[in-house]
Structure formats: structure tokens, C-alpha cells
Amino acid sequence: MTQASSVVVLDFETTGLSPNMGDRAIEIGAVKLVDGQVVDSFQRLMNPGFRVSTFIEGYTGITNNMLRTAPSCDEVMTSFSQFIAGENLIAHNASFDKRFLDAELERVNCGYSGEFACSLLVARRLIQDAPSHKLGELVRHRNIENDGVFHRALADAQVTAKLWLLMVEELEQYGITSPSFTFMQRISKTAKSKVDQLLANHRA
């Protein structure tokens, strides 16, 4: 059984919201956790083959000038597929990152065998008193150490990893130590009103 504390936490910066609309990845950042310790990281800018909008430049701080000399998406994603081989995956608002991961890997005929869990959905169940469940809000709410950089892929992946491990550790308050990845997925799909019951049953 795979532990929730041994995963790859990833984050994409992109040219827009949907690969179906022609948007592409422009940066990938990821950290590899083994038993709650960061053992490796991956960060690359990637050239999508067209100019990004001034909005995206301002939002991410990633400029067209930076991307001009970056390797292609295909080159970066081929390398990234090896980084995540055999690992379960975490992202904050995972449906977004999964769409881009799937689309970019499909272009290079690569895949992955792990499953996804969403730290945002888990946080909605386990940190119900947060003012919002955006990554920055949760970081402030839980006083998670960060360097103040948001909307850059590696920095976001690093704080998402800290948030994820914090939630895994806080389950100890319910008598749940070393929860499995599958159990965290179950939490993310449980109605908020039934989470306490799920945790009580799991402890028992």
C-alpha cells in the first residue's frame, strides 16, 4: 500500500486555462517526497512555440524573453515523464494540472502509471475553517513557511507539498498514522458533513 507521504507534488504554469483551446504548459515544477522528506525536485521552463499574453507574463513573471531560449515542451515533458514514473501525484486543484499533464504527455507518446489526488479537495474537508482554499490563503491560514513567491511552478509545488504533509500529520490527531494515498483520495471525495465519521471509522 502506497503511503500518502511518498508522492510527487507538481504544478504547471500555462498560457491559459485549457489545452483543448490550444493552451500549452510554459513551466513545470515538482518535488518528490519519500516518507515525508523531499528527495528530489524538477523545474523547467518550456517554449510553447508561440508568444504568451502580457496577462500571463504579468501573472507568472515568466516573460516571452525567458521562454525564447527555453527547451520545447516535448523535450521537457519527455524528461518529466521519467521523473514521475511509478509515482502517485498531488496537485492543488489537480483537475487543472492533470489536464495539462495528460495533454502534454500525449503529444510525446508518454504516460504515467500513478494516480492523482487533489490537495485543494482534501483541504476543503480537513481545513474547513479556512477563509478560502486557494493555495495562498491556506499557506497564510496555517502559517506554512514560504518564500512569498506564488504562480511559479516549483515554489507552488514546494508549498503544496508542505500543505499536503501538514494535512497528513494532522490526521494523527484522529489516531490515524501513516495514512495511505488511497485514503487521502477517499477524504477528497467524501461530503464535508461526513468527514468526521470517515475518520472515526478509519481509526476504529
TrEMBL record:
CDD domains named among the record's database cross-references: DEDDh
Task: Give every Exonuclease domain span.
Answer: 6-173
Tell me which UniProt keywords the record has, alphabetically. Exonuclease, Hydrolase, Nuclease
Quote a single Gene Ontology cellular component term. cytosol
BP terms from Gene Ontology: DNA replication proofreading
Q: Does the keyword Ligase apply?
A: no
SMART domains assigned: EXOIII
Family annotation (SUPFAM superfamilies): Ribonuclease H-like
A Pfam family hit: RNase_T
InterPro entries the record matches: DnaQ, Ribonucl_H, RNaseH-like_sf, RNaseH_sf
Q: Signal peptide span per the entry?
A: none
The chemistry this enzyme catalyses reads:
DNA(n) + a 2'-deoxyribonucleoside 5'-triphosphate = DNA(n+1) + diphosphate
Q: What is its EC number?
A: 2.7.7.7
Q: Domain of life, per the record?
A: Bacteria
Q: What terms describe the molecular function in GO for this protein?
A: 3'-5' exonuclease activity; DNA binding; DNA-directed DNA polymerase activity
For the keyword Nuclease, the answer is yes
- Xref: NCBIfam families: dnaq
Described purpose of this protein according to its UniProt entry? DNA polymerase III is a complex, multichain enzyme responsible for most of the replicative synthesis in bacteria. The epsilon subunit contain the editing function and is a proofreading 3'-5' exonuclease.
PANTHER family the record matches: DNA POLYMERASE III SUBUNIT EPSILON, EXODEOXYRIBONUCLEASE 10
Subunit text:
DNA polymerase III contains a core (composed of alpha, epsilon and theta chains) that associates with a tau subunit. This core dimerizes to form the POLIII' complex. PolIII' associates with the gamma complex (composed of gamma, delta, delta', psi and chi chains) and with the beta chain to form the complete DNA polymerase III complex.
Question: Which protein are we looking at?
Answer: DNA-directed DNA polymerase
Q: Which organism is it from?
A: Vibrio caribbeanicus ATCC BAA-2122
Lineage runs:
Bacteria, Pseudomonadati, Pseudomonadota, Gammaproteobacteria, Vibrionales
